[in-house]
Amino acid sequence: MAKKLVETTLYSLSAATPARPDRRNDERYVSLLRVGALTVDGRRELCLIRNISAGGMMIRPYSPIAVGASISVELKQGHSVSGAVQWADKGLVGVTFDAPIDVLALLSAPGGGPRPRMPRIELTCTATLRYEGIVFRADVANISQGGICVDSPVDLEVNGDVVVSLAGLHAAAGVVKWRDGHYYGIGFNRVFPVAELMAFLKDQQLEERQRQAAA
Fold first, then answer.
1. Considering the chain, what is the average pLDDT of its residues?
2. Model confidence band, residue 53 (pLDDT cutoffs 50, 70, 90)
3. CA distance linking residue 184 with residue 73, whole number of Å
4. β-strands 29-32, 5-8: how paired?
């Protein structure tokens, strides 16, 4: 029996609303998506949050929602965001927020309590990889404390050893865990400390905002 992959909520620093999903077979995935409290047309229900960016989110509601509908979603205790439905496709809904949100603020623990392990964060940057004596650049798709997904111009072998370097983070040794076309998942040998990764992400968030302002 094939091992199922785990699907978790993906966060992004981009101001863009998440696009319609690809056509993959969802039966291959075990869902561990974040739960949100959705309010639409005066009713309140739960939804699953698949993607969330500074500009919008992709959710899976439990009842149909029409394109153009105004909704609000409570993303954390006492904090709701409002927006409008831009598209609906096979049980998924894309929402554009009325105003951009601070994605990294969602990852902080309420009341100064212990911070949970950080989820995957989608990025627009490049990393330097060292693999079998070759040093090259690769585009980063997303990163978490425990690993990174890159679009590599060099073929990497699954279970191969890699060292990943990103500006603002210490070099991290890891192992190639999976391949999907030219995308590779690399698991770090040691988990990044939350404080170090959060400082790096704040710099990335600032750069993303500067790109948006210049666009």
1. 87
2. very high
3. 33
4. parallel
Domains and CATH numbers, the chain: 5-106 (2.40.10), 120-188 (2.40.10.220)
| Nearest Cα residue to 51 out of 177, 187, 181, 142 | 142
Token pair, residue 128, equals 């330097």
The region of weakest confidence among 31-35, 180-184, 208-212 is: 31-35
User: Whole-angstrom Cα distance, residue 165 to residue 100?
Assistant: 30
Q: First-to-last CA distance in the chain? A: 48
What is the dihedral sign for C-alpha 144, 53, 58, 215?
Answer: negative
- Taking the whole predicted model, whether its pTM rises above 0.90 is answered as no
Name the residue with tokens 């690993």.
147
Report whether 164 contacts 172 (CB < 8 A). yes
Q: Where are the alpha helices (DSSP H) in 27-151?
A: 103-106
Residues 6+ apart with CB under 8 A from 128: 135, 136, 137, 138, 164, 165, 166
Helix, strand, or coil (residue 78): coil
| DSSP H or E segment with residue 194 | helix 194-214
| Residue 113, amino acid | G
Cα 50 to Cα 34, 92, 163, 208: the distances in Å are: 7, 9, 30, 21
The first and second tokens of residue 207, run together, are: 């750069």
